Amino acid sequence: MLEVLRKIVQEVSLAPDLKSVVDMLVKSIRHAMQTQVCSVYLFDADEHSYVLMASEGLNQEAIGSVRLSAGEGLVGMVVQRAEPINLEKADEHPAFKYVETTGEERFSSFLGVPIIHHRDVLGVLVVQQREQRRFDESEEAFLVTLSAQLAGAIAHAEATGSLGRIGEPEATKVELHFDGVPGSSGVAIGQGVVVAPPADLNSVPDKPAGDIEEEVESFAAALEQVRSDVRAVSLSLAKRLRSQEQALFDVYLRMLEDNALAGEVVARIRQGVWAQSALRDVILEHVRKFSMMEDPYLRERATDIRDLGRRILAYLQESNTRPQEFTDTTILVADELTPAMLGEVPTDKLVGLVSVHGSSNSHAAILARSLGIPTIMGVVDLPYTKMDGRELVLDGYSGRVYVQPGEELRAAYAEILRDEKEQAAELQTLKNLPAETKDGHHIPLWVNTGLLADIGRSLERGAEGIGLYRTEIPFMTRDFFPSEQEQRQTYHRQLKAFSPRPVTMRTLDIGGDKSLSYFPIEEDNPFLGWRGIRVTLDHPEIFMVQVRAMLRASEGLNNLRIMLPMVTSMHEIQEASRQIGRAVLELQEEGCAIERPEVGVMVEVPAAVYQIRQIARLVDFISVGSNDLAQYLLAVDRNNPRVSDLYNGYHPAVLQALRFVVREAHKEGVPVSICGELAGEPGGALLLMAMGYDTLSMNATNLPKVKAAIRKINLTDAQALLKEVMSMDDAEMIQQVIARRLAEQGVAQRYLPFIPG
Questions:
Q1: For 132, phi and psi rounded to 5 degrees?
Q2: What residue ranges do the domains of the chain occupy?
Q3: CATH of domain 201-319
Q4: What secondary structure letter does DSSP report for 208?
Q5: Active-site position among 156, 286, 363, 492
């Protein structure tokens, strides 16, 4: 049964559109389960009903016309309960509804299973038989398993089919939305431009053909180059291969003939699409067909066809002389964004970024935040190859992408954009004013940085220091570990630019979702694995080179602070402190005029929270990394879009832990800062200030908003707000109360992220 399951899932996942998906599904399930009927009902959002989309066994004229609302009939009951219903005599059940056109009066037994994706019931899978019997446990389990595995593929196919074609009348287009993880806050409205890595068939974007004859010629030239390559390889290996192996090359050449794959591609181009997507469609269709074959030898040919397709695509991409066109409101879309992709677009034309994969901590997301570009990562359900040329709206606050927005939605976000521009101009006037409450409480606002580009933006916004300099960024942009001298030069530029303001440099923090191509860390559970201080203490040669570079960079400036990431024990602090002390002595002996800098730790794991008094006795300062701390407290990977809605910095447990840390550390007389996303939200910043945090560190883009909120309120009012929310047990209610209280205190709503319903 597992093999049958694998085959059905594979077949459906390769289907080109929704109709093909559901048609394949009902045929395959009916055959596999040996039933008389298999049907699929899918939700129609416009009609708020479940439509019979495909069936093997029911009357074909019923397909597309039979509609049932949630709770109506047995199908509606499956939807309402969101669980399987297995009946021996379906027509005797109170919920049974006879629909004459279906012809289902001939069938007695009924098994219906919901198709659920992200908690939404997309539809219902139904099997029926004439004989009166309950489907057994293995049959029910098979259908439930299949439904769970196919829900994503069905959602993807449904979304792709709803897009319509570029150039169709606006009235025929459907407004869609897809959820991901916020990578950089803000709002963007623009046109999608899909970028793809070289020779990746699955990433080729849909585009119309500019000049059909030119596309045909381009394809013919690429095809001839691949034919030439195959002949050359065949000739070079002729003496070493047996005749049957040599015959494979003849098979490849026949595949590339005009009346085979090549002819299909040309026919597709003449339908009006560019050569690359024509090639993609033909190759993937043949891959699908061969993958489904019973014969192992023939099934293996799917790999050969894909390889030939990749080779042709590589030549097509190489010969494509048509420059990539970027509109003035370009939103870059990719399977996985890279910094190099960002560099391809003129910065004055780039307004937003969308990545199907990747996290908010990826290098591309960090770069986007430093540039202030709204970004959404991990939009796993987005049919991104269909996004080229489509109008998109990005909500970088909620992590939502709207495709083909309607007039009302577009107008709402256009208003937010205007508001943001007005706000930016207004907040610029606060640059030289202190972050001070109306009753005179001052709290320093620092920035989180990692790139040289951040320096100017941070100083322009009035940053009073750097609370987190991510030293791993220079490591991520290279193909090998940077030398001590290279690191010294990089760090010196940061320290000098901010002097005499303090600069807190975090030692190398790799592992988790931050990897180096030249130092791979392969783990089943990387977030609980070898990362942060654990890596550098295991590799003192890396740690000592970095610490020496930091110390040498600070010579004559003395504004360096060193921070240790991912600390969980006293031993880690003691060992790191010993090595820092050794580096100081070495450099002093070498004649460097340096002093031992302040050394602190990041509190990111629950273990550190409950040892905070002991930790405070060993360090000069403490900084809370609220992003990771919330992640570990809530057992939620904040970069996983499937559970990202469970990640919330305002969760009562997170707020309790944050207050506990600052209270306990202050008992030892140690200053405490915080450098997570919560500090960059006006409401979160006011709560943290009320808790007693000495410094708030955030992205430079958010600093003016936080400063404006602080200057609008009294410390006593912030403390009253904190007291109110600490008695609450629901994160969403806490956020609602914060928004309401800030509005009452005169903090304008536009200082807070606004997410339309």
A1: -80, 105
A2: 2-162, 179-195+325-421, 201-319, 426-751
A3: 1.10.274.10
A4: B
A5: 363
CA–CA distance from 149 to each of 30, 32, 112, 114 (Å)?
Answer: 17, 16, 16, 12
Specify whether domain 426-751 bears CATH 3.40.50.300. no
Mean pLDDT by 10-residue block, N- to C-terminus, for the chain (757 residues)? 72 74 89 93 88 94 92 94 94 91 91 90 94 93 89 77 52 75 90 86 86 90 87 72 65 76 90 91 85 74 83 85 80 85 82 88 74 89 89 92 92 89 81 93 94 82 94 81 93 95 95 74 81 92 96 96 96 97 96 95 96 98 95 85 80 98 98 93 95 95 90 94 96 92 69 40
Q: How far is CA 338 from CA 279, 332, 348, 369, in A?
A: 25, 11, 19, 14
Using alpha carbons, select from 701, 213, 248 the residue that is nearest to residue 447.
701
177 a catalytic residue: no
User: Whole-prediction pTM value?
Assistant: 0.75
Q: Which CATH number fits domain 179-195+325-421: 3.30.479.10, 3.50.30.10, 3.40.50.970, 3.40.50.620?
A: 3.50.30.10
CB 189 within 8 A of CB 413: yes
Chain-centroid distance of CA 225 in Å reads 38
Strands 503-506 and 466-470: parallel
Q: For the domain 2-162, what is the CATH code? A: 3.30.450.40
Return d(Cα 714, Cα 719) in angstroms, integer.
9
- Tell me, yes or no, if 38 is annotated catalytic: no
Nearest to 496 by CA among 446, 449, 455: 455
Please work out, in degrees rounded to the nearest 5, the angle formed at the alpha carbon of residue 492 by the alpha carbons of 487 and 498: 140
**DSSP-based three-state secondary structure for 278:** helix
The H or E element containing residue 260 is none
Phi and psi of 471, rounded to 5°? -70, -15
Contacts 24+ apart (CB under 8 A), 209-215: 209/269, 209/272, 209/273, 209/274, 209/275, 210/274, 210/322, 212/269, 212/270, 212/272, 215/269, 215/274, 215/275, 215/278
57 backbone φψ class: left, alpha, beta (φ>0; ψ -120 to 50): left
CA dist., res. 353 & res. 332, Å (int): 5
Out of 117, 156, 651, 675, which one is annotated catalytic? Answer: 675
Q: Which ranges of 171-242 does DSSP label H, i.e. alpha helix?
A: 212-236
Token code pair at residue 299 = 């099934």
Q: C-alpha distances in angstroms, 652 versus 561, 717, 718?
A: 31, 20, 17
